[in-house]
Design brief:
The protein is α+β, with helices and mostly antiparallel strands and 102 residues long. It has six helices and three strands.
């Protein structure tokens, strides 16, 4: 088995919490912090840390606003995040195909 594809996996995305966030946002244009937290069963602090990491990588945009006088935080994938996620999925598919060929 060729280990090269494994070495190319994007470590920012590969962590399971961040992969879950990226997957949800790849399927939906934008989700609120609350929707992500509740769907993924994460604590506020854990989700905040993952969002910050994805944002620093340029994969996620965060928009803060007010709705009904309450703070509202929305997250969406950036174009770079969409491309990074597509690349990640394509690489996983190549790894799966490599193992099927055996």
């Amino acid at each position: 088995m060729n280990p090269e594809p494994f070495l190319q996996l994007d470590r920012v995305i590969h962590e399971k919490g961040r992969l879950a966030i990226m997957s949800m946002l790849a399927a939906t244009p934008s989700l609120s912090f609350t929707e992500l937290r509740d769907s993924l069963g994460m604590t506020d602090g854990n989700l905040t840390t993952h969002i910050r990491t994805l944002q620093e990588a340029g994969y996620l945009s965060v928009t803060k606003s007010f709705q009904n006088n309450r703070p509202h935080t929305a997250c969406a994938l950036t174009p770079a995040g969409q491309q990074a996620f597509r690349n990640y999925i394509n690489l996983l598919e190549a790894i799966v195909e490599q193992t099927k060929a055996k």
